[in-house]
């Protein structure tokens, strides 16, 4: 099955896609925006990392475009230090995606490395120069013969997990629903009133992110994930929310409990 | 006055510092983390951009460290396209800080440019190669003789404003207070209950961000900015919040209305 996702070969998104799809034919894109704009119907995008937080590009593009979330995939993230150098003491600079750099903050400080940001962990391996190392998946080291693994599991925390969404797949019964809430105006207590639509109908929020509407400082929209089936309670909560904000339903999906 | 801030010369943080401090002696640091760890007592850090959203590194470091916010500074952001090339048609790649790249998304798409991420807008100018351009302040072009300005005001939106915080300056009366709320546990309706501590005491929230605690997927702390003086209502709201979460007061400061 053809699936658009963030490349190149060996990214964590690639690993997550191999975990979820039985017969994966990956269409590698160079940015999350290209994934959303790809002609390939099915897509896989990162939504949140347990250390770095929400993935802003994905949240903004879910708001702008008409894709439907059909499944959640969780992948434990294990970064390796990959280099052409023989010793870690010869490494002065570390290249990686900003999220991976932020996930290995303690390791980078301990070895006093300079950080260089790359568009993906796999691109960091491709762009390595002398005296440099990359933070990436072990798979990314196997693609390139000139480099090897200097150290494994260098992330700050082994609870490092990234969540991905499958877009436009088969819809099924689900436990979680993602919504975009656009209040349009700001007034005291508005967010609290909106949240009472969830608690008042017995629905727990698993996740909330405020994001700028790009229309001026202090104007926000909200991305929320509610723990609910697609039942009567969700419909009532949505009716309640519509009295405060424009509501977009991004889809209902099963929680990934596979870890 | 010595102030630690994000360098090199010509960054927007540098411009904001020149706007606020009369007798600025800048101590340029290469990351926001270095600014926080600098021996220089007074610091200036970006907290939010109207297009890109909250600055994650600053929010996480405000939580981790013991700095006090003493003032807010707002700076309108105007990006120039800076290059050694003569014509925009000779430019294939654009380098800049991820926030600036996200703020010029429409311009980058229109000219079909490849994006390369840099640690600062000023570093993007320094690292320019043939066929490339940087998105940075006009001031950053003046520092380097080999480049010139190909286009001005290329940001998607003229409402592009960045807010900065002055840390450890003179404390004074203020209208806004920043707090870190750490619930420690998750339960249905908890965020709504915390927000009712503000609305119940007549305090409006200007800003709220959820950030991962780095202790596992789905565990968050909250950064909030409340519109209030340092009066009795704030004390009552904090007592109410303390029944739900650990509360850290990051300081009270005046809103910057200078634009």
User: Biggest sheet of chain A, in brief?
Assistant: 5 strands, mixed
Rg value of chain A: 20 Å
The rough form of chain A would be described as: elongated
Major sheet: arrangement of strands of chain A: 8-7-9-6-10
Please tally the helical runs of chain A, counting DSSP H or I stretches of 4 or more residues.
Answer: 9
Give the N-terminus to C-terminus distance of chain A in angstroms.
24 Å
Report on this structure.
- Two copies of one chain form a homodimer.
- With 259 residues, chain A is α+β, with helices and mostly antiparallel strands.
- Chain A has nine helices and 15 strands.
- A five-stranded mixed sheet of chain A has the order 8-7-9-6-10.
- In chain A, helix 8 packs antiparallel against helix 9 (232-242).
- The longest helix of chain A has 11 residues, at 190-200.
- The interface between A and B is large, with 53 and 54 residues.
Which labels suit this protein?
homodimer, 259 residues, alpha+beta, five-stranded mixed β-sheet, four-stranded antiparallel β-sheet, 15 strands, elongated
Question: Would you spell out the secondary-structure blueprint of this structure?
Answer:
The structure is a homodimer of 259-residue chains.
Chain A: E1 2-6, H1 12-20, E2 25-29, H2 32-37, E3 43-49, E4 53-54, H3 56-64, E5 69-76, E6 80-83, E7 93-96, H4 98-103, H5 105-110, E8 114-117, H6 121-126, E9 132-136, H7 138-143, E10 148-151, E11 161-167, E12 176-182, H8 190-200, E13 204-212, E14 220-227, H9 232-242, E15 246-253
Parallel strand pairs in A: 1-2, 7-8, 7-9
Antiparallel strand pairs in A: 3-4, 3-11, 5-11, 6-9, 6-10, 12-14, 12-15, 13-14
Helix pairs in contact in A: 8-9
């Amino acid at each position: 099955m053809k699936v658009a996702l963030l490349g190149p070969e060996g990214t964590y998104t690639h690993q997550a896609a191999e975990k979820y799809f039985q017969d994966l034919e990956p269409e590698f894109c160079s940015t999350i925006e290209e994934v959303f704009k790809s002609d390939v119907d099915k897509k896989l995008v990162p939504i949140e990392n347990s250390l770095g937080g929400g993935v802003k590009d994905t949240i903004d593009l879910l708001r702008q475009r008409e894709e439907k979330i059909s499944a959640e995939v969780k992948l434990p993230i294990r970064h390796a230090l990959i280099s052409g150098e023989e010793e870690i003491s010869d490494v002065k600079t570390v290249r990686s995606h900003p999220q991976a750099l932020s996930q290995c903050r303690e390791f980078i400080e301990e070895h006093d490395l300079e950080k260089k940001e790359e568009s993906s962990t796999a691109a960091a391996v491709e762009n390595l120069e002398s005296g440099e190392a990359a933070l990436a998946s072990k798979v990314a080291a196997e693609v390139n013969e000139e480099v090897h693994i200097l150290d494994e599991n260098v992330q700050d925390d082994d609870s490092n997990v990234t969540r991905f969404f499958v877009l436009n797949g088969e819809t099924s019964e689900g436990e979680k629903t993602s919504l975009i809430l656009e209040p349009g105006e700001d007034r005291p207590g508005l967010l609290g009133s909106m949240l009472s639509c969830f608690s008042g109908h017995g629905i727990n929020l698993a996740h909330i992110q405020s994001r700028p509407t790009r229309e001026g400082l202090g104007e926000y929209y909200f991305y929320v994930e509610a723990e609910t089936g697609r039942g009567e309670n969700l419909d009532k909560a949505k009716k309640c929310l519509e009295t405060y904000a424009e509501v977009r339903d991004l889809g209902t999906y099963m929680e990934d409990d596979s870890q």
